[in-house]
Amino acid sequence: MALNIKPLSDRVLIEPLPAETKTASGIFIPDTAKEKPQRGTVVAVGNGTKDHEMTVNVGDTVLYGKYAGTELKLDGKDYLIMREDDILAIV
User: Fold this and answer.
1) Backbone torsions φ then ψ of 86, nearest 5 degrees
2) Residues 51, 57, 58, 60: is their CA dihedral positive or negative?
3) What is the tally of helices (H) and strands (E) in the chain?
4) Can you give the pTM of this predicted structure?
5) Quick count: other Cβ atoms within 10 Å of Cβ 50?
6) Contact, 5 vs 58, CB < 8 A?
7) Is 9 left (phi over 0), alpha (psi -120 to 50) or beta?
8) Which pLDDT tens digit goes with each residue over 43-82?
9) 84 SS3 class
10) Is 7 exposed, middle or buried (0-12, 13-18, 19+ CB in 10 A)?
11) Taking CA atoms, which of 7, 9, 18, 26 is between 20 and 30 Å from 84?
12) What does residue 85 show for φ and ψ, rounded to 5 degrees?
């Protein structure tokens, strides 16, 4: 099912990846200690502005700051909407 949302100008809609449930050494992380994910998949991209051409595309996996973006809930799923400048890297 396609989303009926189109970000404006230089904004990007991101679906965060699930939080880690186990450490690299195999220890399970309880729900109360899980950190907010900082990786996600780009779901929708705005058109950019005349001064800013968009560099991310739908389907890219990106890294973003811990407190970046605004949280949304659409069709029962959690998303973040943020400016492309808040994205740190494409993975």
Assistant:
1) -80, -10
2) negative
3) 0, 6
4) 0.82
5) 6
6) no
7) left
8) 999 998 888 889 999 999 999 988 889 999 988 889 999 9
9) helix
10) buried
11) 18
12) -65, -20
